[in-house]
Amino acid sequence: MKIGILSRRASLYSTSRLKEAAAARGHEVRVIDFLRCTMEVKSKDPAVYYKGADLSLDAVIPRIGASVTFYGTAIVRQFEMMGVYSTAESQAIVRSRDKLRSMQLLSRQGIGLPTTAFARSIKDTQHVIDLVGGAPLIIKLLEGTQGRGVVLAETAKAAESVIDAFRQLDANILVQEFIKEAGGADLRAFVVGERVVASMIRQAAAGEFRSNLHRGGTAEATKLSTKERRTALAAARALGLSIAGVDMVRSARGPLVLEVNSSPGLEGIEKSTGIDVASEIIEYAEGQAHWEDSE
What we know:
It contains nine helices and 16 strands. By secondary structure, the protein is α+β, with helices and mostly antiparallel strands. The strands form four sheets. It has a five-stranded antiparallel beta sheet, with helices on both faces. Strands 2-1-6-7 form a four-stranded parallel beta sheet, sandwiched between helices. Strands 8-11-9-10 form a four-stranded antiparallel beta sheet, sandwiched between helices. The chain starts with a strand and ends in a 7-residue tail after the last helix.
């Protein structure tokens, strides 16, 4: 099978592991900087070119950063028009990148979530604070990733100041209930198809409430409860994602989904669990793409 990994850098851990796993299973694989791709949009035989050369692929694995979502998903959509299988559909990526939209979709499916509020006017600041139960509370930029643009406001005054400052900058934010009993820990469930293939628990560093490994958090393998596993699968399904990293916290009322990531990193989950997640992804793609095994 001819596989293209849509990634800005071949040296990234996730990209290199996917390439290694695909090659080990006998596939022809190349890393493609999707920002160097051009599209030929026409009624018959649409095409994608890479550095001027025609691309012929059986499957693509999108590894698209948040800052280039628009162009990245346009390239994925073009491959979809050509009948090329993608491990993440373009619309599913777009849904996952919009935190408000994704929360609304999860809510519609009855999936557990921290109470979340959204408003446009600074005149409604106090109301959104009240809706999530007051301080302490979490304030999130809609476009933030890897813990960037996430603030813990420990008092109502601090919350008002941060919310008003963001709104003055015309930034869209969510105000979210702080789950104190989680103790700065969250779960990452790695979904491939209809299975959770690996899971880890991440613990925030001392003095930090964000458990992201990029921010000094630590991770170790963990076993999910049946409800946590079902919640992760339901969350990925609600956004239309076949491959997803579902982040949850353990609360007094059960697992609550914080975010569903359409391009989950492999380094933390593979190193903490010892599971070859990259090969799980390639094996899943083999079963979904239309291709002929030469053997």
